[in-house]
């Protein structure tokens, strides 16, 4: 068998790339280990940049039909019983995009939308229940687990999109150094009150609950626990879990109680790593194969989509111009590495802010968030940077404002500031402007 581009792994990253390549007529083969949808929870929040990409892939209507839009994130810091809670609201609506909001969608639904669309293109080939076992130069050995058959594919390019355990990354000889955190998360979806339509983060100095509405009146929840506490928690009756949630959000009375068994609740262990190498010869890695991010800022699957978009556009141009020298692949990390590093840094900071169960840290967090909401530049920078639409680095000056050392700014963000900090087509795909492809 022969194909132009072989993709190992049909997760969000592999399918985004596969669809994009199929749309420009490249012969692409995706092998996916699993037979069908997985019950394991993975990311569900789409950021504005990913929505723009899904629009360019002509699937945005289906995404809207199956998703729940979130414009505002409400952040509530609960104090003791006597003090009023502190609220702040961070909004996507200030962003310069046709999609100034995020969107919650079931992970497997999104994969289904991408896969169904891709299957409509004759140059797209999909092998479910098929594991990439071995890579040797331009040859890949695959095993179809259902038929218990092994076969080989010859290809020009090999893309590793296998997530955290990547055969392609191993073949490239690349290792990653994992950073673990002092906390884990419990995560579960359950019915929500109809009026709960905004994203909510509720915290005390020692606990954290994130609530992200899904369609069909469901809500995805994430609850922070100290690392290692899961086993002892699971020994308690499920009503103890309900109590933890209702203490943070009384509106969940009658809703969270519909979870009847600990088995419905998944443990999520946050990790972080960023590979030094994205590309080697005719091989490249995307998504979780190359970077894994703490889930606090909801970036994981967005980074996979954005990798797939940039690498896909590059491979399409290489094929269109018949410039197939593998050294062209280096354009992909040139665009992605800096953006990924910054988003990982933001996610890491958000994680640290909620990680330490001390009253002064809770107090500082509440105050900083309120000032971040009210300081126009800080608010804009935070939303722009998590949206994926652009990059505007935070400075010491911003941090001093957020910390209450300097006064807040209340002017508007100028058109020029917006233009200078939002990614342009040229920044997304810089090779197009030059005759640089080999
Ligand atoms: C438990 C968990 C919870 C998460 N929660 C969040 C969250 O709350 N927010 C967020 O933004 N992100 C979250 N993430 C991260 C997010 O899901 C990932 O960043 C995103 O799915 C990455 O997409 P991907 O396509 O790179 O990898 P994956 O989604 O991991 O897809 C890789 C695919 O490759 C397949 N595969 C693996 N090895 C092989 C092989 N040898 N041959 C063939 N196929 C193979 C796998 O079966 C899988 O389908 C979470 C991840 C995990 C694991």
UniProtKB/TrEMBL annotation:
Keywords, in A-Z order: Oxidoreductase
Domain FAD-binding: 2-341
SUPFAM superfamilies in the cross-refs: FAD/NAD(P)-binding domain
The keyword Transferase belongs to this UniProt entry's keyword annotation: no
Full protein name: NAD(P)/FAD-dependent oxidoreductase
Protein's organism: Rossellomorea oryzaecorticis
């Amino acid at each position: 068998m022969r194909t132009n581009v072989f993709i190992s792994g049909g997760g969000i990253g592999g399918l985004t790339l596969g669809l994009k390549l199929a749309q420009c007529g490249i012969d692409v083969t995706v092998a996916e280990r699993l037979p069908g949808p997985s019950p394991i929870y993975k990311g569900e929040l789409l950021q504005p940049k990913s929505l723009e990409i899904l629009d360019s892939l002509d699937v945005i209507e289906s995404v809207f039909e199956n998703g729940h839009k979130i414009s505002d994130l409400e952040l509530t810091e609960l104090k003791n019983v006597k003090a009023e809670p502190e609220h702040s609201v961070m909004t996507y609506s200030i962003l310069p995009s046709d999609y100034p909001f995020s969107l919650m969608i079931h992970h497997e639904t999104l994969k289904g939308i991408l896969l169904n669309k891709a299957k409509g293109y004759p140059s797209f080939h999909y092998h479910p229940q098929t594991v990439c076992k071995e890579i040797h130069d331009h040859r890949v050995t695959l095993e179809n687990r259902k038929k218990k058959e092994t076969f080989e594919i010859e290809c020009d390019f090999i893309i590793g999109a296998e997530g955290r355990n990547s055969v392609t990354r191993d073949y490239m000889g690349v290792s990653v150094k994992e950073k673990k955190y002092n906390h884990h998360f419990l995560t579960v979806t359950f019915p929500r009150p109809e009026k709960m339509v905004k994203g909510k983060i509720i915290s005390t100095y020692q606990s954290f609950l994130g609530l992200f509405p899904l369609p069909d009146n469901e809500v995805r929840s994430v609850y922070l626990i100290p690392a290692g506490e899961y086993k002892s928690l699971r020994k308690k009756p499920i009503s103890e879990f309900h109590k933890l949630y209702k203490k943070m959000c009384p509106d969940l009375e009658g809703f969270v109680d519909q979870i009847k068994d600990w088995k419905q609740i998944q443990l999520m262990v946050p990790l972080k790593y960023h590979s030094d190498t994205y590309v080697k010869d005719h091989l490249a890695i995307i998504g979780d194969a190359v970077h894994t991010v703490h889930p606090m800022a909801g970036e994981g699957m967005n980074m996979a989509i954005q990798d797939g978009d940039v690498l896909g556009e590059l491979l399409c141009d290489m094929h269109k111009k018949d410039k197939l020298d593998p050294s062209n692949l280096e354009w992909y990390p040139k665009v992605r590495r800096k953006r990924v590093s910054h988003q990982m840094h933001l996610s890491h900071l958000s994680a640290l802010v909620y990680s330490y169960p001390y009253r002064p840290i809770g107090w500082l967090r509440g105050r900083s968030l309120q000032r971040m909401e009210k300081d126009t530049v800080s608010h804009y920078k935070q939303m722009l940077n998590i949206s994926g639409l652009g990059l505007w680095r935070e400075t010491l000056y911003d941090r001093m404002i957020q910390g209450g050392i300097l006064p807040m700014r209340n002017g508007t963000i100028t058109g020029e500031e917006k233009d200078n900090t939002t990614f342009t087509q040229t920044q997304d795909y810089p090779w197009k402007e030059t005759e640089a492809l080999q």
